[in-house]
Structure formats: structure tokens, C-alpha cells
Design a protein that fits this description.
The structure holds 2 protein chains of 2 kinds. Chain A has 13 helices and 8 strands. By secondary structure, chain A is of the alpha/beta class. Chain A has a single domain (12-319), classed as Thiamin diphosphate (ThDP)-binding fold, Pyr/PP domains (Rossmann fold), CATH 3.40.50.970. The mean pLDDT of chain A is 96. In chain B, 36% of the residues lie in helices and 19% in strands. The chains are: A alpha/beta, B alpha/beta.
Chain lengths: 379, 328
């Protein structure tokens, strides 16, 4: 093979990890779609096919203990974070071995061990939560960042505007990634938006906002690496608009008749998975056999995940009465311990109220007095 | 025992809990430099600094939701809503996130947060500012709902709410803040979920909570002059309801009047009636009477406003009806 003109700044390990994760999400979602048509998965099931780069690039650019949360198209991110594929599939199947014991389903995957704080079903509802998690990091003087995904249509929710205002004013370490797949369910984003370029909305709050090619995992990786450094340096929140495309309908119930076959065909040429494969091959960092091996391993992993879910029991009826109210002394449930019997060691731990020393001066007195004075002078 | 105003009792509870636990912060409109729209947070900014007493923009959904997120990762926020009427804007975050996080995560997350502020009529504020909305929140599993009437309960229950690992909705009252009562100093915690017999009686039980408690006590005094012994049961916590205390009192007096500031349809009182009819039917000597706000929007005009709300004469009339002593 011809040597590349410029050496890749990325290691073979990083490139193959990203490839593996994207292919895992692709394969997982294809099987989830198939299991939906077989009636094994019910309710709403929103597939991530086409958007894999948007979950994987950012995940590799942040630390495992950084926080992440998403909307209801939420199978991709936990798989990128390292969640157990069988337990995610079991959640989709509504089985007791799922991450939420089958209580949440496809739209509500939570894996706190891997710092994935959930999929949320109300459009835009997770946006303030992410600012609060970043607030907590700032309050405790940690250098952790929070990555929050939302869809293009969520940009028109009041929650986004209220949150951006506070996040920017208080310089919270949060990265918002708008997954702009161009359609809010069946409505093209430009049909309902005065400014369809979502990243521009950051400027209203004096906040950093940029468009990113969401069909290129390396571009996503670089954008989030840079944004995370910005956040950790205390410079405030960042909005990234990842321009992406879902190859399937909004949910399994959507045949996507509002867009043409040729449009979908054209977008499929942009598939992020072969793109990364081609790049890696061209860089001479891997050979075809490496990818074939990964493909086979992932297929076997997903087959096993489906089998695990299918063979798992439904939750017990006693579960109905659990997890609504926390009783005094009750511990939090650690899913992999509960289901797989493995010892979970990286469960989040927070300082007690006596250990914690809050040193943050959120609004210095002089700054408040100056604002008061300016308001007075303007009259 | 020192006598404090309701607002001072709340202030004391906040200060003590913030001293005890650095994870506790207070956020809301005007809570800092202005010292609180109703002066509940008087002096706290100077004492605890601007990261723990936070002046929020007028974005109830925004700072409500932000605090739910902070609670998910270990902080213990107290969110002041200037009134519960405004908190309707934050209802999505309270109902769809705070109340459901434990469930949706299959027990992985908890959400220790208090949303508090005044509910009910403040006095000459018309329809948007005068609603008693506790029934709305009591409807949702995953929340606890409290509505203390006295300064002592206000202190003890706010302390319990802050220490609770669940989202707690606390109804105070614009017309309660200046009321005075004896308040124990220091560590005084009133457990949530426990009603309180505020006045013992034998002929009838008057069940109530929050500001209506004072009309009920007034009515009980008047009734005593006529030889009628009324028991006043202050529910204090509206979710979960203290069924045991309700049933014990009904079994003692066999007659019940429920007094509620809010509207009758789907009100808390309706649920209390249901508990009584299903579990103490044979103990009843008369149908349960309800005194509620009238089924109309609140008017500004003084006479219309007064006529809309329960008061002592209405309660006295309901008691007499329950005792079959109308016109007596």
C-alpha cells in the first residue's frame, strides 16, 4: 500500500475503537429494528442508524467520568460509553434484566456506572438537567464536563433558551450537541424555524456556537475535544450543531414518506462508518482483515445481546412498587451488580455536606453592584 | 420557647440546614440581594455567598430543571418559586423529570430537591395569583407534598423536606408568612407523612391544612361556645396522606367536615372522603361535608374575593349540617 502524504494524528487503537463502536451501534440498531417488527420490542423505538459518528466521536473526546445525557433517541450514546449491549437490548425488550428493570424501555436508557444519565422523552426536557449537572461540577470545583444531546426540533423549546441564558451567564461547563438530522419527526426543521441554523442561536446568549459535520467521526471528535478543553478552562458552555442524517424514519412507526428515496440514497453515500474505514485503510493503520475481524466480533456480540434479552424474564410484579419513592436508608440500584453479579467499582461518589467546601463566588458583589449602577444610569 | 413569624421559622430552617450540609443551596427569583420577595431568605446571601443563595432569572422551568439536574448528581437544592402560580411554567420539569427519575432509571438515581413557595390567595390579586394548587401535585406518584400551617411545622417540615431523598413540594402562604407562633430552637424535625391533631374534640372532626387551619380553629372556638366539641386534624402532608390519623379521628367523632382552599372537583378533600367511605363507612353518623373554594375564578373585588373562599361561618354551617343541627 502507498504511504499517506501526511501521517495520521490518530492512533490505530483510537481509530479501530471508533470503528468498532460505530459498527456496534449500527448492528445493534439493525437488530433492534428487526426485533421491533417481530413484536419483541414495542412502544416507540427511535433508531440511531446514520448518526453513529455523533455519539462515538464525542465520547472518545471526553473522559469516562464526564457526564452525558440524551433525548429519546438514546441507544447509541450508552453503547458508545461502554454499556452492556445485552442489558440495553433487554431494556428495549421490557425485561427485568434491562438497565432500568424494563421500566423505562427504549426511550429511557440510564447507565449511571458509565455516567450516562438517561434518555428523556419530553422534547428538550433534558437541556436544563444538563446545565444543573454542570452546575454541580462547578459548585464542587470539579473539572468535569457534561455533554448533552438534543434534536434539532428541541431548539424551539423554551427550555433551551432559558437554559442557555443561565449556562452562559454562570459559565457552566456543558457541551450541547444538537443532532440536526433535519426533521423534527416528519417536519423539516426549516418549515418551523425562523433561523434553521441552530448553532446561530448561541450568539443570542454570548455563547460559543459552531456547526460540525456530524457524518464524520473525526470531525466530531476534534470539535468536542476542543469544546471540552474550553469548558474545563472555565470559559463557559458550547453549542455544537452536528449536521447529520437518520437513514431510517423518526421511529419504527414512521415510513418517512416526507422525504424522497433519492434524498436518502444521496445521504447514504455519506455513511460515517465506511468513511472511517476508508480513512484508516488509506492511512495504512489497518488492513481489511482487521475490519472483518471487528465486524464478526460485533455481530456475535449483538447476536448474544438479542439472545440474552429474549431469554430474560419479565420484571417481577413486586417491581411495580419499587423505585417510585426512595425509602430511608435505601441504596441506589447498580444494574450490572444486580443483573450480572459483577462488582461495580466506579459508581459516582459525592462529598458529604461536611466534607464539601464551596469556594465558587457565582456573582461577585462588585459585579452585581456594577450591574445595578449601570441599570440606574440608563434611566 | 421563642415566638417567630412563619417566614422567620422558614429562614431558620434554611440557615440551619445550609450550615449542616454544604450540598444545600437556595435558588429563586429575588432570593439574594433583595432578601426574598417575602423575606424568607433574609440575610442568607451575606451568610452563605452567591453560589449557595442564587438570584435566578425569571425562568421557572429553567432554574427548576437546572436544580433537578444538580440533585441527580448529589446536590440538595431548595428551589423557591415566588408563587405556585408561576411554578406552573416549571411543571414539566417537576412532573416529567423530578417525579420520574427514580423510576425511569430503575432505581439508579434519586432526586433530593425541595420546591417551595406560597400557594393560595394572597389578598386582592385576582385569578392568576390566587390559586391553591396543591391537589395538582398531590396527584403524582414520585412526589411528596406538604402544606404546614404553623410556624413550628413550617420549620420542622422544611428541615425534614431538605433531608428527604425525594422531590418534595412545599406549599406556604402569603398570608401565613407574618403569622406568629412558638418555634422550638435548633434541631426540630417534623416527619413528613404525619398529620397532627391540633385541637382535641369529640363531636366532629374538621380536617384541613395550610391557611384554612386558622379558619377551622376559629370555627371550633365559636362552636365550643354552643357546646359543640370539634376536633381539628391538620393533615400537614398531602402526599402521602396519613390514613391512620384520618381514620382514628373519624372513629372517635363519627362526623367529618373537610375544609380546603382549592376547588372541589378532584380536590384533596375528595380523596380524603374516599378513604373515609371505603375504610370507615360504618363509623359515620352523617355524610361527610366539604367546604371548598367556590368553583369560579378568583375576583379582585373584595366582596367577591371573600365570598369565593371558605371562612369560619361557612365551616360552622357545615359542622352543624354534619350534626343535623341546621337552624338550631
Amino acid at each position: 500500500m502507498e504511504a499517506p502524504a501526511v501521517a495520521s494524528p490518530y492512533s490505530k487503537d483510537l481509530l479501530l475503537t471508533m470503528y468498532r463502536k460505530m459498527y456496534l451501534i449500527r448492528r445493534f440498531e439493525e437488530r433492534a429494528g428487526q426485533q421491533y417488527t417481530l413484536g419483541k420490542i414495542a412502544g416507540f423505538c427511535h433508531l440511531y442508524i446514520g448518526q453513529e459518528a455523533v455519539a462515538v466521536g464525542p465520547n472518545e473526546a471526553i473522559r469516562p467520568d464526564d457526564y452525558m445525557l440524551s433525548a429519546y433517541r438514546d441507544h447509541g450514546q450508552p453503547l458508545a460509553r461502554g454499556s452492556d449491549a445485552g442489558m440495553v437490548m433487554a431494556e428495549l425488550f421490557g425485561r427485568g434484566t434491562g438497565y432500568s428493570k424494563g421500566k423505562g424501555g427504549s426511550m429511557h436508557v440510564f447507565d449511571i456506572e458509565h455516567h450516562f444519565y438517561g434518555g428523556y422523552g419530553i422534547v428538550g426536557g433534558q437541556i436544563p438537567l444538563a446545565a444543573g449537572m454542570a452546575f454541580a461540577s462547578r459548585y464542587r470545583n470539579e473539572d468535569r464536563v457534561t455533554v448533552c444531546y438534543f434534536g434539532d426540533a428541541a431548539a424551539n423549546q423554551g427550555a433551551l433558551h432559558e437554559t442557555f441564558n443561565m449556562a452562559s451567564k454562570w459559565k457552566l461547563p456543558v457541551i450541547y450537541i444538537c443532532e440536526n438530522n433535519r426533521y423534527g419527526m416528519g417536519t423539516a426543521i426549516a418549515r418551523t424555524s425562523a433561523v434553521p441554523e441552530i448553532y446561530k442561536r448561541a450568539s443570542a446568549y454570548d455563547m460559543r456556537g459552531e456547526p460540525v459535520d456530524g457524518m464524520d467521526v473525526l470531525t466530531m471528535y476534534e470539535a468536542v475535544k476542543d469544546a471540552a478543553a474550553w469548558c474545563r478552562a472555565g470559559k463557559g458552555p458550547v453549542l455544537l450543531e452536528a449536521n447529520t442524517y437518520r437513514f431510517r424514519g423518526h421511529s419504527m412507526a414512521d415510513p418517512a414518506t416526507y422525504r424522497s428515496k433519492s434524498e436518502v440514497e444521496e445521504e447514504r453515500k455519506n455513511d460515517p462508518i465506511p468513511k472511517l474505514r476508508d480513512y484508516t485503510l488509506k492511512q495504512g493503520l489497518a488492513v481489511d482483515a482487521d475490519f472483518e475481524r471487528i465486524d464478526e466480533e460485533v455481530k456475535a456480540l449483538v447476536d448474544a445481546a438479542v439472545k440474552f434479552a429474549d431469554e430474560s424474564p419479565e420484571p417481577s410484579l413486586e417491581e411495580l412498587w419499587r423505585d417510585t419513592i426512595v425509602e430511608p436508608g435505601e441504596e441506589d440500584v447498580r444494574p450490572r451488580e444486580r443483573v450480572l453479579g459483577v462488582k461495580v467499582t466506579n459508581w459516582p461518589k459525592y462529598p458529604t455536606g461536611q466534607e464539601l467546601k464551596v469556594t465558587w463566588d457565582l456573582e461577585p458583589r462588585a459585579q452585581a453592584e456594577l450591574a445595578d449602577k449601570k441599570a440606574g444610569l440608563s434611566h | 420557647m421563642p415566638e417567630l413569624m412563619y417566614r422567620e421559622a422558614l429562614n431558620q430552617a434554611l440557615a440551619e440546614e445550609m450550615e449542616r450540609d454544604a450540598n444545600v443551596y437556595l435558588i429563586g427569583e429575588e432570593v439574594g440581594r433583595y432578601n426574598g420577595a417575602f423575606k424568607v431568605s433574609q440575610g442568607l446571601l451575606d451568610r452563605f455567598g452567591s453560589a449557595r443563595i442564587i438570584d435566578a432569572p425569571i425562568s421557572e422551568l429553567g432554574f427548576g430543571g437546572l436544580s433537578v439536574g444538580a440533585a441527580m448528581v448529589g446536590l440538595r437544592p431548595v428551589v423557591e418559586m415566588m408563587t405556585w402560580n408561576f411554578a406552573i411554567l416549571a411543571m414539566d420539569q417537576i412532573v416529567n423529570n423530578a417525579a420520574k427519575l427514580r423510576h425511569m432509571s430503575g432505581g439508579q438515581l434519586r432526586c433530593p430537591i425541595v420546591f417551595r413557595g406560597p400557594g393560595g390567595a394572597g389578598g386582592r390579586l385576582s385569578s392568576q395569583h390566587s390559586q391553591a394548587l396543591e391537589a395538582n401535585y398531590a396527584h403524582f406518584p414520585g412526589l411528596k407534598v406538604i402544606a404546614p400551617a404553623t410556624p413550628a411545622d413550617a420549620k420542622g417540615m422544611l428541615k425534614a423536606a431538605i433531608r428527604d431523598d425525594n422531590p418534595v413540594i412545599m406549599f406556604e402562604g402569603e398570608r401565613l408568612y407574618a403569622l406568629k407562633g412558638e418555634v422550638p430552637e435548633g434541631e426540630y424535625v417534623v416527619p413528613l407523612g404525619k398529620a397532627d391533631v391540633k385541637r382535641e374534640g369529640t363531636d366532629v372532626t374538621i380536617i384541613t391544612w395550610s391557611r384554612m387551619y386558622y379558619f377551622c380553629m376559629q370555627a371550633a372556638e365559636e362552636l365550643a361556645k354552643e357546646g359543640i366539641s370539634a376536633e381539628v386534624l391538620d393533615l400537614r402532608t398531602l402526599r402521602p396522606l396519613d390514613e391512620e390519623a384520618i381514620l382514628a379521628s373519624v372513629r372517635k367523632t363519627n362526623r367529618v367536615v373537610i375544609v380546603e382552599e382549592g376547588w372541589a372537583l378532584a380536590g384533596i378533600g375528595a380523596s380524603v372522603v374516599d378513604i373515609i367511605q371505603s375504610k370507615a363507612f360504618d363509623d359515620l353518623d352523617a355524610p361527610v361535608e366539604r367546604v371548598t373554594g367556590l368553583d369560579v375564578n378568583m375576583s379582585y373585588a373584595a366582596n367577591l374575593e371573600n365570598a369565593t373562599q371558605p371562612d369560619a361561618p361557612k365551616i360552622i354551617a357545615a359542622v352543624k349540617k354534619a350534626l343535623y343541627r341546621q337552624g338550631a
